[in-house]
Design goal:
Blueprint (H helix, E strand, L loop, with lengths): L13 E9 L4 H19 L4 E9 L2 E9 L6 H12 L14 E7 L3 H7 L15 E8 L8 H17 L7 E14 L2 E14 L5 H17 L8 E4 L15 E2 L4 H4 L20 H18 L5 E8 L8 E5 L6 H7 L7 H8 L25
Parallel strand pairs: 3-4, 7-8
Antiparallel strand pairs: 1-6, 2-3, 2-9, 5-10, 6-7, 10-11
């Protein structure tokens, strides 16, 4: 007998898309948050600071590395410990804790050859040039009020819910590490239902698995998912059966390893550059923020239901080498391209538009750099 579309796991016009998120206690996000904390500390003292900070953590070791040029003077050790404490790693019985971690620093000044290309009036381009070559993408869709893909939006909400619950009774058995994952069924390219939800919260050894499952399915999920909650969702709670050992005490973390979590959960393309620890002269960050802003404008102007922007830069050159818009058949590509023709993609213009020379970066680190209120590129 021939297989029909109805027998297929993905009938014609129907498919399932999945995205994941992590809590601020995930080892990679610990590193991102420390890097952005260091960035904010320097910008607070000197808005023109050039910061490219990388962080690695494992057990009781934290490594800070990178290139920083600033008129500010920052106690990196103190900033890192303060960030770890804010995340919630304070238990002295665990290898990784704010007071007990050993910190190694390998930080030098920014290369003068990069500086001459980025600083105005110093390079071949007299305007402020891009801090590096690369490609950046921005994406928006009208499938949610936040103009974000629904799978990553809901995964972030669940992860944030774990973190918020951990800080209050009766959920003090929760620990900082955690992961979430949401699968959404689409029909005719529109979300219609959730099929599977994975929630893996780190927890104390004293809590029974049955209580964790009851918390996720009876409290967290209904409260966070709202109208998207359904009794038909298949829940997978700590699928290995236990998640007591977590965070940097159990796993290594590195900055820049959660770039899909940081953006669109895989629904939009990614240029490959990470965000955290980089000042806005790095177009990996500021360029991606501006592309998201433009994609949002295209949706707001009713030029498309879904839009993606790609730009490319060469180091030291202020204007992008290329700009491309794609509406995926949901709008008029020509009208969208015409709309963005007068947009100013120069790094200095992006920095001025969003007022990026201020310490706002810690608020971007966790639960996505997009789709959150209060960020200038989300206006």
């Amino acid at each position: 007998m021939n297989r029909t579309d109805a027998d297929s796991p993905n009938p014609a016009g129907s498919y399932i898309f999945t995205s994941e998120s992590v809590t601020e206690g995930h080892p990679d996000k610990v590193c991102d948050y420390i890097a952005d904390s260091i960035l904010d500390a320097y910008i607070q003292q000197d808005p023109r600071s050039r910061v490219a900070c990388e962080v690695l953590c494992k057990e009781n070791i934290l490594i800070l590395a990178g290139e920083i040029t600033s008129r500010g003077s920052v106690d990196l050790d103190a900033v890192a410990r303060r960030a770890i404490r804010a995340i919630g790693y304070t238990d002295p019985a665990m290898p990784f804790n704010a007071d007990g971690v050993t910190i190694h620093q390998f930080v030098s000044r920014q290369s003068p050859e990069i500086a001459q290309g980025v600083d105005p009036d110093r390079g071949l381009d007299t305007d402020q040039g891009a801090g590096d070559q690369g490609i950046m993408f921005g994406y928006a869709t009208d499938e949610s009020p936040e103009l974000m893909p629904l799978p990553i939006l809901l995964a972030h909400r669940l992860a944030r819910g774990l973190a918020e619950d951990r800080r209050k009774a009766p959920y003090t058995w929760l620990r900082p590490d955690g992961k979430t994952q949401v699968s959404v069924r689409y029909e005719n390219d529109r979300p219609v239902a959730l099929t599977d939800v994975v929630v893996s919260p780190q927890h104390s050894a004293s809590i029974a698995r049955e209580e964790i499952v009851a918390y996720v399915t009876g409290s967290l999920a209904p409260r966070i998912l709202g109208d998207w909650f359904s009794k038909d969702i298949r829940f997978h709670v700590n699928p290995t059966g236990s998640f007591v050992l977590g965070g940097p005490s159990a796993d290594a973390g590195v900055t820049g390893r959660k770039i899909i979590v940081d953006t669109y959960g895989g629904a939009g393309r990614h240029g490959g550059g990470a965000f955290s620890g980089k000042d806005p002269s790095k177009v990996d960050r500021s360029g991606a923020y501006f592309c998201r802003y433009i994609a949002r404008q295209l949706i707001g102007q009713k030029l498309a239901r879904k839009a993606e922007i790609q730009i490319s830069y060469a180091i030291g050159i202020s204007k992008p080498l290329s700009v491309k818009v794609d509406t995926f058949g949901t709008g008029d590509d020509a009208a969208a391209a015409e709309f963005i023709q007068n947009m100013d993609f120069r790094p200095a213009a992006i920095i001025e538009r969003f007022d990026l020379l201020r310490p706002i970066y810690c608020q971007t680190t966790n639960y996505g750099h997009f789709g959150k209120p209060g960020l200038p590129w989300e206006q």
